[in-house]
Fold:
Amino acid sequence: MQPTLELSIYTLLRMAFIWQLISLAIYLVGTLTIAAFLYDNFKSLISIIKALLEPYFQPQLPQTLLDKFGKWAVITGATDGIGKEYAKELARQGFNLVLISRTKEKLIAVTNEIESEHKVKTKWIAVDFAKGREAYEQIEKELAGIEVGILVNNVGRMYDYPDTLDMVPEDLVWEILIINVGAATMLTRKIAPQMKARRKGAIVNIGSGSELQPMPNMAVYAATKKYITHFTQALERELAEHNVTVQLIMPLFVLTKMNEYSSSVMRGGILIPTASSFAKSAVFTLGKTSTTTGFWTHGLQYFFMKLAPLRLRTLIAHELGRRLRIEALEQKKLT
Ligand SMILES: NC(=O)c1ccc[n+]([C@@H]2O[C@H](COP(=O)([O-])OP(=O)(O)OC[C@H]3O[C@@H](n4cnc5c(N)ncnc54)[C@H](OP(=O)(O)O)[C@@H]3O)[C@@H](O)[C@H]2O)c1
Ligand SMILES: *[C@@H]1O[C@H](CO)[C@@H](O)[C@H](O)[C@H]1NC(C)=O
Structure:
């Protein structure tokens, strides 16, 4: 009888030991996961707080965006929405502006408006980014001799309303690929070298919170924004050693003409800021943090969204896409 008893005690001890190992592993993985999650979500907030305290400890460092980055800001898609409000906010902070957009009349109106409110120089370039290569040749010519301090890659195109890929006009799909992926990439490539040479400057890329998961019914748009995320974050590392700042902004819904297909989005609210409050807040984060939604309620929303697993987020995104599509189609019928 003795040996069996001993055997079972050993078995029990062994099981207890294995159980201990398993719980230790769970504990370690849990702690690391929580630490990584908190780090990812709060590093931006911490860098902003650090940047706000810096002037008290190192008053000799340049404080204004103008001192940090230079005199001229170039903004694409600057005649409406977020881009226009970026332009106004940067002008308020003393930047001379080059506005790049498609419609000449709107460019003239916006530059006039800005010059009447702020004592800055402005210049505009009318190009259609959907034309691809030839747009950049024109921009390069017109930018010759301008020391670009800040480049805001803002121009972006969404479908007219959410829908499945086969329902989006083929030309529009091409435009979205060429504009959303091409413009930020090629302008960064053209302008980064002069910033590198001066060891000074900032590139701001406007991505989108839609990059957080695949977005059925906005498939192409959201995928181009995922491209912007990875492109921007890779460039941030490439340019850091040259003292050039690269920032990724990932807004959620903002009140602009891009969302006009949905009257429920256009109603606004605390989660859907105006382009003007959004841009003021986003410009405030420039030079303080490298990746941000740009607006505090978007940051909170993003935080809670990230708690859900990717698969669940994709299902929710699909449901949102479906509802927005139905709303847009009904709105179209009425008009
Ligand atoms: N609004 C949102 O909810 C939201 C959310 C997340 C991310 N974003 C991103 O934020 C950026 C700005 O969006 P927004 O809502 O402010 O857009 P918007 O109100 O539609 O304004 C777009 C701007 O880009 C210009 N543009 C459009 N197509 C162009 C082309 N082919 N060539 C040259 N210029 C062109 C427009 O010029 P015209 O006036 O001549 O059309 C306009 O100035 C985009 O990258 C967008 O993806 C927006
Ligand atoms: C980096 O840029 C800042 C201004 O943005 C400047 O004050 C600093 O001297 C630069 N550092 C180097 C090493 O060039």
